[in-house]
Amino acid sequence: IGRGHVERAVEKRIYRSNLFEERIKELVEKDIFWIETDGTKVGQINGVSILMTGDHEFGRPNRITATVSVGREGVVAIERESKMSGNVHTKGVMILSSFLKERFAHNKPLSLTASLCFEQSYGLVEGDSASSTELFALLSGLAGVPIYQGIAVTGSVSQKGEIQAVGSVTRKAEAFFDICKRKGLNGRQGVIIPAKNVKNLMLKQEVVESVREGKFHIWPISTVEEGVEILTGEKAGTLQPDGTYPKGTLFRKVDERLLELAEVARKFAKEEEGKKEGSKK
User: How far, in whole angstroms, is CA 189 from its chain's centroid?
Assistant: First the structure.
């Protein structure tokens, strides 16, 4: 029994169980399940969820979008509001608000309403492995900076912006590779994973060869800053002693947008107060 026999046996075992997985890939390839693997978009990013059918586990890419407006509600997950979110996923979304406060609310109040959504998701969303993915979409929406759509992201995020380990990174990386392969590899695509998960990777040989040849990439990261720089091509920026971020950085753009939203909310509240006083007179 040689290596080829073992690989063939594994392929056959997967083939007997992966009908549902193949159907999903066909729907993605036909753009019925909408997943983009090239181009750039503001407030849109690819995540990867895990599905199981019997004893077969596989990844399914998900398009995650974020919208931002003036308001007081903070970060809102549509899945939570529609009761399609589990407790762990809800916790992950709440951490995003804490991250924004820690990085950007030191000199102003946060006056925003941001909506996050797993597009074309029709079941319960659970787990916090997409919390960093949602944060990147949110930062992109706030800064108005587009994200390259040929990259998928998995990883949990802490209040301090640390990228934490998650489960099933191998299946997630392989799933996005399969979609990129069907739609056409261009040498820029890949998956961002937590650095602490590198030791858990056991990728199939086809993915390993593609990474070795530079056709596909695996980026391990430890902080939010590393992730946004890969996704947008812009420097994240470090908080300076005067409480601002360097000009031209992504965090500077986020900070300026949040300040603009706070000013709009303040002016609107002042105008409403003036109308109330006028009506009393």
Answer: 15
The pLDDT of residue 281: 61
pLDDT of residue 135: 94
Strand partners, 41: 147
Q: What is the 3-state secondary structure (H, E, C) of the chain?
A: CCHHHHHHHHHHHHHHHCHHHHHHHHHHHCCCCCCCCCCEECCEEEEEEEEEECCEEEEEEEEEEEEEEECCCEEEEHHHHCCCECHHHHHHHHHHHHHHHHHHCCCCCCCEEEEEEECCCCCCECCCCCHHHHHHHHHHHHHCCCEECCEEECCEECCCCEEECCCCHHHHHHHHHHHHHHHCCCCCCEEEEEHHHHHHCCCCHHHHHHHHCCCCEEEEECEHHHHHHHHHCCCCCCCCCCCCCCCCCHHHHHHHHHHHHHHHHHHHHHHHHHHHHHHHC
- What sign has the CA pseudo-torsion 178, 180, 186, 188? negative
pLDDT tens digits, one per residue of 104-123: 988 888 888 899 998 988 77
* Higher pLDDT among residues 189 and 269, named by residue: 189
Point out the catalytic residue in the list 111, 129, 140, 210: 129
Q: Give catalytic status of residue 129 as yes or no.
A: yes
Task: Please say if the pLDDT value at position 263 is more than 70.
Answer: yes
The residue from 25, 172, 215, 253 that is catalytic is: 172
Is 168 designated active site?
A: no
- Global confidence as pTM: 0.90
253 close to 237: Cβ distance less than 8 angstroms: no
pLDDT of 131 reads: 92
